[in-house]
Queue: 2 jobs
Job 1
Amino acid sequence: MTGTDSGWSEKTSGTEVSKLSKLAKFPVGVSVAYGNEAFSYTNSPAQQAVIKTHFSQLTAGNIMKMSYLHPARDTYNFTQADDFVKFAKDNGKTLHAHALIWHADYQVPAFMKTYQGDKAAWLAMLKTHVQTIATHFSGKVASWDVVNEAINDGGGYRNSIFYQNTGTDYIEQAFINARAVDKKADLYYNDYNIEADPAKLHTLTGMLDGFKARSVPITGVGFQMHIYMDYPSVSTMSAAFKQAVDRNLKVKITELDIPINNPFSPPYQAGDIKRELTPALALAQKKRYCDVVKAYMDTVPARLRGGVTVWGVSDPSSWLISDLFKNAHADWPLLFDGAYQQKPALRGVADGLSGKACTNT
């Protein structure tokens, strides 16, 4: 089957899930596109139906990032985000906001790239940025990714424009500044590959221990979880979750997706590319989703479960297809196909939330 096929057989999909979020006492979320973006929920009644039925929390894929909300030094633009907030509220959904500070070149506002000032000036500028945005949304969002992806693969801190000008101080100051104007929202540090890279995890835990020693107001760790069918192992993921749990921090899976193809694997590099989502592959993906959610449930106590969010609604909308695989072939990383029909992967998440055995049948 292709990424847009529907009509999964009963043998392949199992019993349909009636309402995924009802199976959890914590947020079950999804990221969505807005407005003129490709695959925007605003242009798709079918996608809206899926969102309203199965998810209790929403994350904006783009419109709450830095360059969207703060395009110029003295200019803030909340129009799209406010409309998104209204959609969530009108439909009984909470919001996980993403993200106050992120290094990505295409998301850093142009004025920050040319900003001139010493360390104190940079920290003051970022304080204004964080507090203006967090104040605007105070009481309207349940949680924030306060700082996103500040740690390198292989350990150490990313040499971002923020690090170059403030060292690591910008990270903890962002949490302090956000908490000063929003007393209730959960505040997360968010990153990818911290569930798989021991050196990256080591840098993270060192940062978290420093935060604790200095009473920095962090609520939890966001594990993006852009993972693969064959990597990392369940035990490795569980051990990483436990590092946050042992520090009494919430654990939130913030950007979960599981593509069938792993573009970094030797088989893929050798040309072994799966070009059809066969029933067997769909059921293997179902089990993998179940294993991940079950590991989360088994490792993270109820009081520290910040939630589970998948990064996109339907397979064709996934960032993996446009950004990573460069449209070389289809892939099927999410819970719904291109016609917004349930895939076995949705049942896998449901089984994990319900404590059922994870199987590929």
Job 2
Amino acid sequence: MKISMIGTGSFGTSLAMVLDENGHDVLMYGRNDDTVHEINQEHSNKNYLKDIKLNETIKATNDLEVAVAHGEMLVLAVPVKAMRTMARTINVILTEQNKKVLICHVAKGLELGTHKRVSEVLQEELSENNYTDIAVLSGPSHAEEVSLMLPTTVSTASVNESGRKIVQDAFINKHFRVYENKDLIGVEVGGALKNIIAIAIGILDGLGFGDNTKSAVITRGLHEIARLGTKMGADPLTFMGLTGVGDLIVTAMSEHSRNFRCGKMLASGQSLDDIIENMGMVVEGVNTTKAAYELSQQFDIDMPITNVLYLYLFEELSEEEAFYSLMMRDKTSETDGLIALMKNRIDSE
């Protein structure tokens, strides 16, 4: 299969390696001429995957028209904030080329302002005549480990069964296992909202809090993800899977996670603007925190961790005030969250 990887960041590069290993004809697209040259001539991408050697069969181009013309499937590995513009441009090219492709995105976030999931953004910008399906590939998958071919398991979801089966078949191999999932909303929401909790855990780690505290925030954070996700139309059971608790654990507990690292840097006294400027990669959890906070207000959903993090990031709430507001909330029941949502889901069947 001819597949174009739109984006030359760490995750896009690691996924290109998976696809190449599976025998697909992979062409990467990137805007940076130096990165494209490095991939083609040196067979590396050291800005993102320092010590990884790429197969010579992986090629790159800085011409988006060439990349779109090449691919039967386009894998969009660009940040959420760039997704709408990229989709709009690709749509024009597909129309000019009179071409229909399968679209798969790997972004994890909500669009700022509209609060839309990435597949919704793509549906708005792509003409129905230009794509067969829009899928997402998501789950606990650090690019660094994928590139080292360490065992990784993810999920793919789409509206149409045929689309997600093609994505599953394209990516699955002995070290990269792909499950299919019917719940497109849940898979996208879980992948987006876990970044919020990862920033919070990074802050706690940087401030010296222990495993007890971090475990509590991860667990209660999962409840918040499920509350909002279910309100948005997701199946609550999805959040007990790879794109829920699985992705939450890997993102909130690893130095590989840029969201976790962002939290640690904040705890050390660095400003959010400086962190974003110096990170070198997009910290999706920052914008997603704002979007989720606004959605919690819109839907009148109790999301205390998200709300406190929003105030900490954007309203200068102190660490002491944030900790006090979480620990001294009104008494409630543990089952007023994910467990209750799951029970209601099971009872309704």
